[in-house]
Every structure is written in structure tokens, then in C-alpha cells.
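Lab notebook: predicted structure, single chain.

Context: the supervisor wants predicted structures on file for every construct in the current expression panel, including those that have not yet been purified. This is the next one on the list. No modifications to the sequence; it matches the entry in the shared construct table.
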Amino acid sequence: MKSTPSPTPTPLHKACRLALLAHAVLAWIPAGAKPPQAAPSPPAAAAAVAELDSVVVRHDARRDDTASRTVVTRAELLAFGDGSLAEAMKRLPGVSIGTGAPGSSGAISLRGMGSGYTQLLVDGQAVAPGFDLGALSPEMIERIEILRTTTADLRSAAIAGTINIVLARQARRDSDELKLALGVSNGRHLPSLHWSHSRRDEYRSHSLETSLTRREYLVEETGSEIARDRDGVLASQRDTRLRVDGYRDALAIAPRFDLTLRNGDTLALQSWLDAGHARKYADIGWTTSLGPQLDHVRYRQFTGTDVVQLRTDLHWSHEFAQAGKLSSKLGLSGNRERSRFREQGYAIDANQNLDDVTDGRLRVHGLSSSGKYALPLSGPDASDSGRHALELGWETGLERRRESRLQHLRAIAGQPETISDLSFDATLRRLALYAQDEWTLSPGWSLYLGARWERIDTRSEGNRIATVRNDASVLSPVLQSLWKLSKTRNDQVRLGLSRSYRAPELRSLIPRPYTSTNNRALNPDQQGNPDLRPELATGLDLAYEKYWDQGAMLSLGVYLREIDGLIRTETRLIDDRWVALPANGGRARTWGVELESKLSLARWFAALPVDLRFNLTRNWSQVDDVPGPHNRIDSQPRLTAALAADYVVNPVWTVGASYSHRSGGPVRTGVHEIESESPRRELDAYASMKLAKRSKLRLSLSNLLEQDLVSGAEYFDEEGWQGTQRRRPTSLLLRAQIEIAL
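Prediction complete. Output recorded below exactly as produced.
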């Protein structure tokens, strides 16, 4: 491979270096003398409580913050005893989980839009492509924040909204807790172990969350495929069967250390490590009853993946006597992945005619810096109608990604030997500057104004791959307002106006082909497009909220997104192979109605301590350059809903259940393509029993309805029509967990 000279540092590269240098210098500037103070109390998940001279002041982020956000507490996530975070998140308001490949969680989405429309963050940082929610257990999470309107201090790559997963924070007290669980589904076992340790004194604290899991699975699927010519005459008919058997072992560790210095500065070191070992075995067969035989009527696949992901963040904050607070963070991240793929194909005469050996390696190293300066523009004695705070901040990031993929098609059955080495080296640079201002103009009206400028530079060079240079910058203004409509401040109206974007993933930019077995229109190759531009969206969010005592609330809202430069994937015939290529298209829009409510029946019936939670989202969308009907964005479901109940039977027993629904139906994804899936209905239940003062037993049943998943795809043009339909049975998951406080 021909070497290339090192590129000349760009202004953006220099800015990254200066920001990192400033971060290091500021972290060691001596601060003015200040009396020692106790370590600050950690923020509560949904409502912080502070006691001052016997006066209790409650702050509910969902209710009181001008910038709208829904906060889901740790207790809510742990209630059903789920084995992975993906299982727990399907019950969150407005959240839905798609059907994933065997052995992995599906794409997470807000308002039914995944695939990059929903921004997923861990501690405010974007997760790596391909991140699996199954890598995290609910015990490792402090809280989850759902933001439907962007804020300037977080990335604006959130057309549908943002889900920020906050890892376990400062230790609240000295504690040790052990959880042992065993799940069984379809004859496969899902054991797990979680250990939580924390210690705290006057000036320092540390905590450690450790999780060890094994997920075994068995997926069996049947399907049929038919094709008709331009006259509508049946041209081919096939049946298929698939069996996938596999497992994934995972170790997750999240340590945290907090220190308060004598001058009042705070330091925090937060790390997260995930190590996974996965093996998957697939057997796929085709039976043709009419029409030409496929080249490979049966093929066996083996996929092995070993991955280690690590991220470490160092936080530092200093509060000036009269001039606000400075906070900064320096982050290091790394990702090492090794994959092995083996495939043997067989012809109709049972002789082997395909022998594919593909090995891949991925190395990712990242360095990031961020910080903000919070300046109160009102005095310390300002009333509720005079609070005014300004924040200025920055984010920089540099990521180096090196990926190799060596594919060896061995000579067999008259086919020549081919070796394809498609390695590439990519560099991603990010720079963001933002300002946000929150102002309480009166006791009943507060305003949030913000603006964020982001620039993303992508450079990639590879073996037999065209050089990619893709630069994009986006300015994202945002306005949010909160009006209290009554003196009791129990009902209020929220308004949000925002500008957001969806940036193409690196894989979508690199013109490297991913070939398919039995290539055809319904199973095309995949290839990137280096000319992709970000989608830009203008958004409106409007909501009415009503609050009562005992945590009861009702929220009714509407949303609208106008999207320019929509990225769509079209399948084309290129050099006798079908290839799916992404490209920017025209305009699209999506709008909807959202409902969320919480209610405790004990408000009216003291003898019936039942807490109810309900959420519903009705979505509409339209893509201008795709013919109708059903031309919706990203296979967006029309309706998602969830209903959950918790019943405290007595001081020993607590039981609960939840039902979630996701609508299905056809979606026109392109000029020539339609995808469809059946509605999904899931019913879960749990029971929790206190065994002793410091131990608890939790039993849970997931997927009680055991509904089959049915999906389909169609391709049609002037030459004819072809379509396929697949059916995947699902199984009940039984899980038992014992929790012991040591």
C-alpha cells in the first residue's frame, strides 16, 4: 500500500489542541482560599430534596426545569428485574425497541424513529456505532433522561430526540449489594451476577458496579419468496428455513472516584469497561418449487466476535467566589474488536460451491475535551422572577479508526480463488461551541435560549477504496419556554423550537461493498456514499402538563419536524449485482401526538395502593420523493403505547405488570421497495418478596403472549414483482433474582 505524507494541521486540529491545552492548564490553576466544605450531596434522579432550617425544598426536573426533560429513576428501571437495559427501556414513555438480529437488541427509537434520528448518549457522550444496550444492566444506571427538544449543551444530532443514559454516580452511603439471577427462554439459559460496592466519607467517595452476564439464544425462522413477471404470471416460488444458535458472554465494570479538595474544587474519575465474547452459528436452507435454483440452496455460517470497549472521563469543577462556576471534562476512549466469519455454501446436488473465510479487526482510539462556564447574571438574593444564568461551553473530539477486512474466497467447484483486502484508516474531528441562557422573567414564566455550532470533519483512506473527505457544519438554535397557568403552578404549558440534524455514519460514507450470499433485489450488497450530507430538521414541540399530589400527572403534547436532505437507500442493479446505496433526497415531515400519565389509586382508595403509568404516541410522516401511500420515515410505526401497574400487596409482597404495543403494517421505503412487519404486543409481570431485612427475591415473566414476529419485503419495477415473508416464533422468558445487601 502506498504511503501518504502526514496532512498539514488544519485550523480545526489546532483548535482541538488549544482546547485540550486549556483544559490541562485550568485544571491546575490555584484557586483562592476557601474554607473546607463537605462533599456535595449527589443530585437525586427525579427530585432533589434539600433541608435548610427545617424547610424542605423540592425540585422536580420534569416539572420545574424550563428545558423539558423526562427523568426515569433507578428504582423504576429495577422494578421488573430485567436482565438488560434494552428490556427495561421498552416501557419508557415514547420509547420503542425494534426487532434486532438474532443475539442482539433492536434499534432504540423515540417517536418511532431510529437509525440515527434518535440520539443515544452515555453520560452525555455519543455511543459507538453498533452499541448494544444488552451490554448494560439496569443496576449500572443512575437515571435515564429523555429530551424531546434539543438543548445547546448536548449534541444536536437528535431529530427525534435524545436518550441520555447516566451511569451510577457518587456513593450515597457505605453499602455492598450482590444480585444473582437465572433466566430461561426457549431452552437456553441467561445467568447473571451483579455486585455493587460504595464507600463515602467527608471529602471523598468511591463506587464500583460490576456485572457478569451470559445470554444464550435460539432463533428459528421460516419464510417464503415468490416472484411474478411483468404480466403478473408466477415466475418463481421458494421456501426457506433458518436456525441461529449462539451466546454472548459479557463483563461490564463501572468504577467512580470523587474527591473534594480543601479549596472546594471537585474531581471525579468515571470509567466504563465492557468486554464481550460472542459466538453465533447459523444454518439457512432454500427449497425451490418453481423457477431457477439459487446458486447456494444451503449455507452454514459461523460468526465470532471479541470486543473490548473502554472509556474514562476526568471531571473537574471550580466555583469562583463572585464569578460563577467552571466545569471541564477530559475523556479517553478505546475500542478493540476482532471478528471471524466463515461460510460454506452448497448447490442443489449437495456439493460445496462456496468457501468464504473473512477476518476483521477494528481499532478505535478517541480523545475528547469539554467544559462550560456558568455565570449567574442575577444576584444571590434574586427572587423567583429574577433568576438569570448564562452558560458558555465547548466540546472537541478526535477519533482515529483503523479497520481491516480480509476476505478469502477459496477456489472450489470451478470458481477461481479471490482475495479481497479492504482496509481503511479514518479520522474524525469534532468541534462544538455553544451558549445557553435560562431566565425566569416572572413567577409564572421562564425562558431558555441556546445556540450550538458543530463541525464534523471526516477523512478516510483505504486499500482499493476511494479517499473520503466529508466536512459538515451545523448551527442549531433552540428556544424553550415554560408558562405556569395558575397560582398553584399545578398546570403549565411548554413550547420548544429547535434546529437539529442527522449526520451519516462513517460506514455510510465509505464506498466499501459488503457482499451478500445469493445476491438479488431482496438481498442486495451494501455500499457507502462519500457524498452524503447531514439531514437538517426544524422542530416544534408543544405540551400541556397537569400535576397533582402523590406523583399524579398528565402530559398531552404535539410535535412537528420538517426535514431537508432526507437520506434514503435505493436498490439498483450495477454490473449484474444488486446494490443498496444511500443518497440524499428531498424533503420529509413527521408529526404526532404524545400522551403520558401517572396515577396512584391510593389517592381515592387508601386500601388500594396501586400506581399506574400510561404513555401513547401517535405518529404520522410523509416523504416527498417517494410515492404513496405508506411513504413513512424509517419504517416509523403509527402507534406505540405502554401501560404498567405496581401493587404493594403488603410490606413483604409487591407485584406488577406491563403491556406494550407497537403497530405494524407496510411502509414504502423507496420508489421500488416496501417493507412490512406485524404489530408487536408484549405482556410482562413480576413479583417481589422481602425474604429478610437485607434480602429480596424477585420473579419475573417476560413475553407472556409469545407472539410470532412476521416481517416482509417487496421489490417491484417494470420487469415484475418479487416479495418475501418471514415468521419468527418468540418464547417466554422466566427469570428469578435474589438480592442481598451485605
